[in-house]
Specification:
It is a single chain. Helix 5 runs parallel beside helix 9, helix 12 packs parallel to helix 13 and helix 13 runs parallel beside helix 15. The chain has one domain: TIM Barrel, CATH 3.20.20. Strands 1, 2, 3, 4, 8, 10, 11, 12 and 15 form a 9-stranded parallel sheet that branches. Strands 5-7-6-9 form a 4-stranded antiparallel sheet. The chain is α/β, with parallel strands linked by helices.
Length: 376
């Protein structure tokens, strides 16, 4: 009997963790409000309008893809502080209207496809090497680079009255390339130099918005070392996520953490982002998740929603991000947005996040009844 009891306890302790169920409401929106934040009257009016539309939480642009931050940081280089008062004003006026604030924090991009951020200019070994040069993405295997991002997170959630944290760009760039730490690790363990593997190797890969590459895998991705190199990246991104969760738990225990992700296609498709969000959920590092819904054909949108629903555990808050206007396409009417909202509900979404409020605004009055009744 004692052995049976102990076995039962072990089984319970090793099963999939119970989920906190912490979520910010049913409907949210990414917001910029860059002009409105310069005027208290305009910012107050914008928050009232957002709230009146039925939106319950906002995800403001707080750490950007450029590496710039929108708060009064003592961690970031001075040149990367865009608007030191932004998040404080956003929180003040959002909370006044009963809106929750989940600041958007872009992690692995420091300049992206453009020029390197000052951070990477000063620390070039932190940057990815692809297409013949350093690019503005950080190496997830570099402990110092991860610590910098975690220090920014601790500063943000520790100094401001945020309701949660919304992660983005917790992934590798969707490119054929390598990092200094990855190159060293693969060379040490496997005796293969990634520089020689990826040299002169280019390939068009699947996109965030669902465009599937028809190209054959490049020489690099056909190399015997590629599965090991890809698994190394999965592991390092997971380490990064674990460290982020630990940082938040230490700085502000109980603060919910969410993440935008590309979706299940990254496990099965032709991409190199190495974003293992299923492990993040299973490990208890996230409180809710919002996979991409950037699809502009209703049937494709439904297919992707169902695929994600099938791979997100029941009971874990599943939101779909509807791209009203993105680099991948545009929903041109309230009816088009409404159809995607209906499909999302039919496919089992617990909530929605619109990208962005600025794109949704012109449809907000017409869609307010649908937003307020979503899921009912």
């Amino acid at each position: 009997m004692i052995r049976l009891l102990l076995a039962t306890i072990v089984l319970l302790c090793t099963s999939v963790p119970s989920f906190s169920g912490i979520n910010p409401g049913k409907i949210g929106a990414y917001v910029k409000l860059n002009k409105e934040v310069q005027s208290p009257a305009k910012l107050r009016a914008a928050m009232k309008r957002i709230k009146a539309s039925g939106i319950e939480f906002i995800i403001p642009s707080t750490k950007l893809t450029s590496g710039a931050v929108n708060w009064d940081s003592r961690v970031a280089p001075k040149s990367q502080i865009a608007d030191p008062a932004y998040i404080e004003k956003i929180i003040k006026y959002a909370h006044a209207e009963g809106l929750k604030v989940y600041p958007m924090f872009c992690l692995c991009t420091e300049g992206g496809e453009g020029k390197l951020s000052e951070l990477l200019e000063c620390n070039p070994s932190w940057a990815w090497y692809t297409e013949g040069k350093r690019k503005g993405y950080i190496d997830p295997g570099n402990a110092a680079a991860r610590q910098y991002q975690c220090s920014l997170i601790a500063e943000l959630v520790g100094n401001y009255d945020v309701d949660g944290l919304s992660l983005d760009y917790l992934r590798c760039p969707n490119r054929i390339g390598y990092t200094d730490t990855g190159r060293a690790a693969i060379l040490k363990k496997h005796g293969v130099d990634l520089e020689s593997v990826v040299k002169s190797s280019e390939e068009v890969l699947d996109t965030e918005g669902g465009v599937v590459s028809k190209a054959q895998p490049s020489n690099a991705r056909n190399h015997d070392i590629w599965p090991a190199w890809k698994q190394w990246r999965y592991n390092e991104i997971n380490t990064f996520m674990r460290e982020i969760r630990a940082t938040v738990n230490k700085t502000k225990p109980g603060l919910p953490v969410a993440s935008y992700v590309w979706g299940y296609s990254t496990y099965t498709g032709n991409s190199e982002v190495c974003q293992d969000w299923k492990t993040w959920i299973k490990s208890g590092w996230l409180d809710w998740i919002n996979p991409s819904g950037y699809r502009y054909d209703d049937q494709v949108f439904r297919d992707v929603a169902l695929q994600n629903r099938a791979n997100i555990p029941k009971g874990f808050p599943f939101y779909i991000t509807i791209g009203v206007h993105t680099s991948h396409g545009t929903l041109n009417s309230a009816e088009e947005v409404r159809r995607q909202m209906t499909i999302a509900h039919e496919c089992g979404a617990d909530g929605l996040v619109f990208f962005t409020w600025e794109a949704l605004d012109k449809f907000a009055d017409e869609l307010a009844p649908d937003i307020k009744s979503f899921g009912k």
